[in-house]
Amino acid sequence: MTAKHVEARFQSFDETADPSQGAPRLKALRAELARQGLDGFLLPRADEHQNEYLPPSAERLAWLTGFTGSFGFVSVLPDVAAIFVDGRYTVQVRAQVDAAAFTAVNVSDQPPSDWLREHAKPGQRIGYDPTLHTLDGFERFERAAKAAGVELAAVDQNPVDTIWSDRPAPPLAPVTLHGEALAGESAAAKLDRVQTELKTQKADALLVTDAHCLAWVFNIRGGDVAHTPLPLGFAIIPAMGRPSVFLDARKLSNAVRDALAGSAEISEPGDLDAALKALGARGATVRLDAAASAVAFARTLEASGAKLQRGADPIAKLKAVKNATELAGARAAHLRDAAALARFLRFVDEEAPKGALDEIGAAEALETFRRETGVLKEISFDSISAAGPNAALPHYRVTRSTNRKLTSGFYLIDSGAQYEDGTTDVTRTVVVGEASAEMRDRFTRVLKGHIAIATAAFPKGVSGAQIDAFARRALWDVGTDFDHGTGHGVGSYLSVHEGPQRISKLGTVALEPGMILSNEPGYYREGHYGIRTENLIVVEARKIAGGDREMRGFETITFAPIDRRAIEPSLLSADERAWLDAYHAETLAKVGPLVDAETRAWLEAACAPL
Known about the structure:
With about 600 residues, this protein is an alpha+beta fold. The strands form 8 sheets. Strands 4-3-2-1-5-6 form a 6-stranded mixed sheet, sandwiched between helices. A 6-stranded mixed sheet has the order 12-11-10-8-13-14, sandwiched between helices. Helix 4 runs parallel beside helix 5 (about 135-150) and helix 11 packs parallel to helix 12 (about 295-305).
């Protein structure tokens, strides 16, 4: 089997980081800070919506430092600068950032606010862009600044923008309608539910700054950022009356404008400030998610007389619980994606042993198979196509300089797709050649953790934090673990990383029927190999005979073979073997009819009983 070599349309493999630019750009920034009467600057990797994926015009941290990870923060002072990352990026930051210009700090060792308290000198004036810092996050800096005796000064013009001469223009992708046939509920019905929540909370209005919430509640999508179909904009939803949306008119066709006008007043984003001041002028109580909304909006509301009601955006919880239409779409999208993935896994099985297939070629082949469905809209994130030691980096991104051949050992592919009816995310680790006894042991322990989550039954009200350890027990038994959450929420033709639901030590929200999550334990031996096995699961009601509690469990909706060659059968219990055999039988039954005869024959062998 061969795949036509088609270059990836949705993923670039170019190395955009250039550590050599860090020092001169830092020097230019310090000069601009001095011109503005500032001694330092606080720069998060963020835009006004706190998106995971930023439009190119908002990638200020990457431009300044060269670091391209999804989380980062930079603190600049006259004689020292630091870049903060989490445990996912400790290796990447060393490769992409000039260590002589920026000191890399793990946020778990020292948060940026603590670093500021330690390094800032009394009397210094530290600038910040109030549109990029969340209210909760900024208050930590306010406490640190007070302790250090320094002043925090809001800037009207971000100093990075001033020195970024070739900064891209803000995005203007067309807004599209996500009709009721896909959404399962009209925008009017969603807005009615949100307004009911606001009345219950005794709030006069809700400020919506999260573009995912904006897209969901108004049944619209867009293309302003990579991999997630977001229209960047804002909304104000009153407890009574018509909402207002703030979207650039250049993104709106007549048809979209007419549809939106049925639900809301339409204004330009530049009109948001005046609308917030109008809320303040009448003393309104405005609900605002302090963990996700910019401090600039909170300050405007407070200064104009509004009362802030800090709390989670109620749209986020409503969005997390999928309706029957969204769940049917997710199941359909996953079966379509499963057929493409089966073709890909067969392709890897046949081509990798020949010695010519590399990480980029594999990622391009997978995107090609997905595009051949005829309905692929985007990939849901940059595919993590990782061979050998590269797979030990959980968030590895292949570039032309890091590209490796798929030689003997493990190959890990973590990927996903955006279809109008659903968002997918799946990881498989496959054997090329032979796997050592240690590799099979670790692979099987990861599988045991995966099965423990897939088969978990738990009472109503239980959160992801309470079951996260299920995925780790078999690894803990041999003195090891993995340093990421076991599962994240997934949207409905929205973000592949959706909150508030999650399976992790930080997952405090109760898991409710209709929520979609990932189930992805892993194991990573730095410099050698990495393992992750990921399916998406749906929380469902569960009846247990003789039980006296309302229970929950999971439905698995991802179907792809788990490499039997990497399993050490003696480590699996009878129940675990039964689950695996049943999962493979279901995979063959569901996916077999969707693929060509040759792929079905391969699938039959891959899904045979252990």
